[in-house]
Every structure is written in structure tokens, then in C-alpha cells.
From TrEMBL:
Residues 2-248 form the ABC transporter domain. It comes from the Bacteria. The keyword Kinase does not apply. Keywords: ATP-binding, Nucleotide-binding, Transport. This is ABC transporter ATP-binding protein. It comes from Kribbella antibiotica.
Length: 250
């Protein structure tokens, strides 16, 4: 269970998050949505440990995440995929996914990238291939990442996050930059991760339509505050949500 408890984040005089509270229950697909500048990325960065909130708490089970350094999250069973993928374009898909495995086994790949035995290497590579197969990018595992379409690289980023064998997967606007067809495919894949792997997912997304078909629970932010929290059906008809989204497009 991931719990945000009255999280406030200020940048000078600007309040990016204002007493934000919500709970992601185990195994659920929880979407965090809101118009531009609502505070979604700020919230993702607080949970990932990149920003320290001004006040409030973030807990995973009994663990206070704010006491941990970001690279320790993998050890707690949290996988993260970022909006701007931090992947190596010269390396193959497999090598990129294996970086996630290194984080899992030794808490940081730089200190230990040479320390896997041959047998370990084989085992991790087999698991990385399995994850890629599951995400539908199995045919591309030996290709250099730079030669592949953007939609595939997005999935590689998710594969790398899954390679830490997480209980909770954090996805920051995974559909950003994808076309309609790629977005629909990605939405189906994300739904499948939740259903087939039983992993809880926090999906930070600008596009309301993407999350409505797949999310169990939706939290809506506007100007740093939670304006609605409920099932997709609930929030879709909420007058404050409609106003926030309409206001953003006019
Ligand atoms: N590092 C920062 N320094 C100062 N202000 C920031 C910083 N990061 C975000 N903000 C501000 O905090 C507010 C929330 O921004 P945030 O990026 O979290 O929103 P968002 O919902 O993710 O928006 P988008 O959908 O456009 O990515 C905005 O007013 C933004 O300008």
C-alpha cells in the first residue's frame, strides 16, 4: 500500500502540491491525472525521491519513503519508468533491461556491473527476455535501442522498471509522444501488467481518455490540490473535474 499523507511541495512562493493525500492499494491500477501544471510530475518526483516535500509523508507499507535515497526504492519493490526515458540508445534492448536487474541484485550497477558470474548473467538475461516477450518486444531484444521506433523504446523503459520485480510500478506519462495507435497498444499493455502480473501501478497521465478504460481508481489534481478521487465513472462525471479539464482547453 502506497500512502501519500498531506504532501505539500513549494517552489519558493509557488505551491506545486497542496496537502495531497491518496492511497494506492496493492494490485490496483491507480491513475493520477490533471490538466497541465496540475502537479502530476511534481507528485511523481516526490514519490520517486527526486523532490523532497515541504511537509507531509509518503509511506510504502511501514516504510517512510522520504527517509530513503531514490536508488534504494528498487530494493523495496518499486520500479519506475520516466517521461524522458534515460536509456542508452547504443546498447541493445536486452542490455538496457539488464540494467534494471543490476539495480535489483546489487543496489546500483556501477559498483557491480562486472560482478555477475556467467551463470547469473544467463539467468538474468533469460528473465529479461521473458519480460520483453510479455511486453510484446521480444523480437527486438538484440537490436540497438536507437534503431527502434519510439513506441518500442517506451516499452523498453517499462521492461527495465519491471526487471526490478516490483510490487509497485510508477509510470510517468508513458504515452507522451506516442501516436493514437501506439497509445492504445500501450494502454492495453499496462492493463495486462496489472491483470497478469498482479503489480500495483501508479500511472501519471495527462490524457484522461487513456486511463478511463483501464484504471481501477483515479485521483484528479488541479492547481496542486486533489479535486476528485474515485472510480473512473465517478470522476468522469464530477463537475469539478469537468470544469478543470474544460478550463484547461479554453
Ligand atoms: N523544479 C521546479 N521549479 C519550480 N517550479 C516547478 C518545478 N517543477 C514544477 N514546477 C511548477 O509546479 C507546478 C506543477 O508542475 P508539474 O510539472 O508538477 O505539473 P504537471 O501536472 O506534471 O504538468 P504537465 O502535464 O504539464 O507535465 C507548475 O506550476 C510548475 O511550473
Amino acid at each position: 500500500m502506497l500512502v501519500l499523507d498531506r504532501v505539500t511541495l513549494r517552489f519558493g512562493g509557488l505551491v506545486a502540491l497542496d496537502e495531497v493525500s491518496f492511497t494506492v492499494t496493492p494490485g490496483s491500477l491507480h491513475a493520477l491525472i490533471g490538466p497541465n501544471g496540475a502537479g502530476k510530475s511534481s507528485c511523481f518526483n516526490v514519490i520517486s525521491g527526486l523532490y523532497r516535500p515541504t511537509s507531509g509523508a509518503v509511506r510504502l507499507g511501514e516504510q517512510n519513503l522520504l527517509e530513503l535515497r531514490p536508488h534504494r526504492l528498487a530494493g523495496l519493490g518499486i520500479g519506475r519508468a520516466f517521461q524522458n526515458t534515460a536509456l542508452s540508445t547504443h546498447s541493445t534492448v536486452l542490455d538496457n533491461v539488464l540494467l534494471g536487474r543490476h539495480t535489483l541484485t546489487r543496489g546500483g550497477f556501477i559498483a557491480c556491473s562486472l560482478r555477475w558470474t556467467r551463470r547469473e548473467e544467463k539467468r538474468h538475461a533469460a528473465r529479461a527476455r521473458e519480460i520483453c516477450d510479455f511486453l510484446g518486444i521480444g523480437a527486438a531484444v538484440d537490436q540497438p535501442l536507437g534503431s527502434l521506433p519510439y513506441g518500442v523504446t517506451k516499452k523498453v523503459d517499462i521492461a527495465r522498471a519491471l526487471a526490478v520485480e516490483p510490487n509497485l510500478l510508477l509510470l510517468d506519462e508513458p504515452a507522451a509522444g506516442l501516436n493514437t495507435e501506439e497509445t492504445a497498444e500501450l494502454a492495453a499493455t499496462i492493463g495486462q501488467i496489472r491483470t497478469d502480473l498482479g503489480i500495483a501501478i501508479l500511472l501519471v497521465e495527462h490524457d484522461m481518455d487513456l486511463v478511463m478504460g483501464i484504471a481501477d481508481q483515479v485521483t484528479v489534481l488541479d492547481f496542486g490540490r486533489v479535486i476528485a478521487d474515485g472510480t473512473p465513472g465517478d470522476v468522469q462525471t464530477d463537475p469539478d473535474v469537468i470544469k478543470a479539464y474544460l478550463g484547461a482547453t479554453t
